[in-house]
């Protein structure tokens, strides 16, 4: 009876295996999928189970089952089906050596022998959109130099992103209809294209560029004080004097009195108040001698302020590149999480089908089916959460790149290591001190305060101003008398003015102390930022070191978890395992795949953080490969 029961169990397991193989063969292309190779391996193991099940007791332990199910002939079949993965799963200490003490500067020496010695295997399927390496060492395609292509003369990259992503040229666009913001197209872009779009479209850089132009105009305004002021003034007037009219009225009364006494001479003209027309032209030249250097101090302060704005533009450009890379890697991470959750749902559905088949055959339990159904529901829920995070990551990247309102983005780059770091920790710190614009900004701010202090001191000393003017006057009158005042004349004037504010209540001294305080603040901030820059470099460096070690460890963990899931399913189909073992193996595989994805994404983000911490990397020493 026990032998008959074992035969039934083996037959059901073989039927489930053949059914799964047929479904997988219809859903996925053979020969390039790691799952298809695993299914073929399950077929061979099912045949071995059928041939040896009549001699194996139902209560055999796992070591005894392994010996009974894997004789030397079947073991060689398994080895031929899985040429590399079982070896890596059974010997993780050789496949993924721990490298806690290996620094990024020695990554090339630690990885090159393994990469050259590993045997090339067929590329596994991209089930989760996360590359499964054929060896513990991932294949490096991108390099930091590729992440920093040379800039064109316009200050942008030359990656030619899709033209459909260009935003509306009107910055005051205000959508008022739902169709104006409806997503109508989805474009797949690379990281370099994302950085290119960010530099083209970012409002942050546009504002920073306008601020640079504004400060450049301020400098030009201060430089204008080097030249004298030349002004021309012209005035045209016609006037009838009120005093003259009063005089005319007085003369008329006098004539009337003389006429009443018959004393008025004959042919006496009637008095009139004649108007005058004048044209006055003045050309004036004035110049401040600046004998104490106030003007030059203002010009130097404006020049330093322009340098400060240029450094701030550089800082914001580097910050934008870092934010773009961070958002792009987050999008890759969300894409990978969705793919992993989709694979988890498929694994849970496969386990549900196995449990239902065993229940229909009378050798399974309803409890196992309910467990599988609950596992499927949980995985579907996690998939929904992952898709939500994916949509949020897409819109976050679209916001940074400032693309069209009707476009969406997906990541075109595969999830793989972005490059390597060849500088030592000490070299990285020194490079950061040389390159970080924040440090130079504090030195520039110190120079600005020094020049402002010099200008304030000079303003409290005597100021000398010289002026020269030339006047050209033309005048005529309504009086027809040839001796009336009319004609053209010119003149000039030279003047020197000295102004000295002898007492101002101590205002100049107070302003000088303010600038002294600004100088001390800039020096203290420089000291603070220097320590902060070093901490950022060390933090990014140590994180990159840790992420590099985690990649190899997580890759071995994925291979081991896949092998454990395959064995758990075989044991469940053979009747010696439980549904709980399968669910636990699926959970372990999902966790391992998420750990590997997190390790790669964290490594890339750490590399981007280290590049940001050092800054100006295109001109520095970066490696093509680790």
What does this structure look like?
The protein has helices at 2-27, 34-52, 62-69, 72-81, 85-90, 92-95, 107-117, 144-147, 191-201, 203-223, 242-260, 294-360, 366-401, 425-435, 437-459, 507-573, 579-614; strands at 185-189, 229-239, 276-288, 407-411, 463-477, 487-499. The longest helix has 67 residues, at 294-360. By secondary structure, it is α+β, with helices and mostly antiparallel strands. It has 17 helices and six strands.
Task: Write a short abstract of this structure.
With 626 residues, this protein is of the alpha+beta class. It has helices at 2-27, 34-52, 62-69, 72-81, 85-90, 92-95, 107-117, 144-147, 191-201, 203-223, 242-260, 294-360, 366-401, 425-435, 437-459, 507-573, 579-614; strands at residues 185-189, 229-239, 276-288, 407-411, 463-477, 487-499.
- The overall pLDDT, averaged over residues, is 75
Strand content range: 5-15%
N-to-C SSE string, H for helix and E for strand: HHHHHHHHEHHEHEHHEHHEEHH
Number of helices: 17
Question: Can you give the helix content as a percent range?
Answer: 55-70%
Radius of gyration, in angstroms, nearest whole number:
44 Å
Widest sheet, order of strands: 2-3-5-6
Could you outline the blueprint of secondary structure elements for this entry?
Elements: H1 2-27, H2 34-52, H3 62-69, H4 72-81, H5 85-90, H6 92-95, H7 107-117, H8 144-147, E1 185-189, H9 191-201, H10 203-223, E2 229-239, H11 242-260, E3 276-288, H12 294-360, H13 366-401, E4 407-411, H14 425-435, H15 437-459, E5 463-477, E6 487-499, H16 507-573, H17 579-614
Parallel strand pairs: 1-4
Antiparallel strand pairs: 2-3, 3-5, 5-6
Helix pairs in contact: 1-2, 1-12, 2-4, 9-12, 10-12, 12-13, 12-15, 12-17, 14-16, 15-16, 16-17
